[in-house]
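Quick question about two entries, pasted in order.
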Amino acid sequence: MSVIRLNVGGKEFCTLKETLLRSEDSYFNGLLSGRFEVPKTDDGALFIDRNGDAFSVILEYLRAEHLVVSANVPLSLVRSEAMFYSLMNVVEAIDAHKERKGIADEEEDQEKNKIPREDGFYINNRSGKDSRVLHFRGDGKLTFLEGDAARNNVYMFNAVRHMPEIWKKSPTTVDSYAKFCQIHLQRGFYEVEGTCITIKVNQTEQPTPGIFQKGFLLFPKRFTDNWEVDAFERYNFVAF
């Protein structure tokens, strides 16, 4: 039996190859097939840029078909991560557990009460080149898009957090996707205090202030140092 060392989002795991391959057609069948170049840490562990806490729950289920429920790791997050790994047996186990316990909407309500929400994006009411989208990703990080395709592009960037292995087979696709991200995707940071927020979408600019209201945000019309010359505008929330 082969022993596999993994580093998932900075957390280290050690398990058997057979354990990871218990679910057919999963992410790990491709990862461990030897057909693709897999990033490794300095000490040789296979690196996966995903949530390590959620993976610990997933791995326990693969080992013993035991679903660990913890207040520190929401089942909605574990389910989302299991979907990424194409581990449908884990997804089905979570769905069955939630149905038995009657907790189908509890975590969804918690997500809706977050400031800012991370299960969708905020978009202003302008069109064309003035259209703007903010997607808050947690841990003080955000994605900023603008232009007439911003709304469609944010759906794409949310669906493709990491380049699929099937895309990596084509150097042209890899190069084109990298250029697409460079052209359309801007990354930034945010801080929250009560119902107030500041965002920074360009390293050379000062933070831009904003206000939370139920279901929407208010930001200045321009994200520049002299934002005070224009009125604030509304960014409505849209769920994915």
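Here is the second entry:
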Amino acid sequence: SPLAAAVPAVQRSKAEDRMGAASDVLNVLATAIIIGWQAWTVSQHSKSFPKSLWTGETNAPLNEACARVFYVMRWTVFLTIFIIIAKIIVSISRMVDSCARACAPCLSILLIVDIFAEVAKVIFFFWGMFVVLTTDEHQVRKQCPDLWVCAWWSFLGFFILSMVLACCMMCVGIFGVAATSGLDEMRPGNAAPHEKTPLVGVPTPTQVATKV
């Protein structure tokens, strides 16, 4: 019946909603852990944190390789924190109607700035990947090994890991769809007619001979 057929669809929708919510929570937790690690690592080499995110002042002179890594790391942390604050303000303003009406012009400007910050973050990500791939690892490990490990994972390690996970999820999805299709074809009601399958409504030779 239509009602019985709708029940599995509703169950799948609820399961997808739960998976989506769990994915959002994991994404927020992973982002918080990564940005916390980046901020703590940058603060270890900053003269005054978080002021040094803007000024770039370090607590000790860095060699050229460490200075390159520190520069791209501090701007990445700065942009990420700015984006998080902007998203929190926009989310709260949207949930409160009075704030949404009173701060509509400011929210529009903030959304535009947030978009530019997201674009800048992507640019810094590829720039950081370039810096990690082209910086002398020996010089960085000699003076600031913690900064190098954090930068490598931030711009290269997590990217590789996410690509591997995406490929695994895609393979699981493909095999899942194939398995589901195979099970549907094996069900008696969905079997395709073949030479040995009697056609409904067509008399067999025995029935014709009996009538004659």
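Reply: Confidence is low (pLDDT under 50) at residues 3-7. The two ends are 41 Å apart (CA to CA). Hope that helps.
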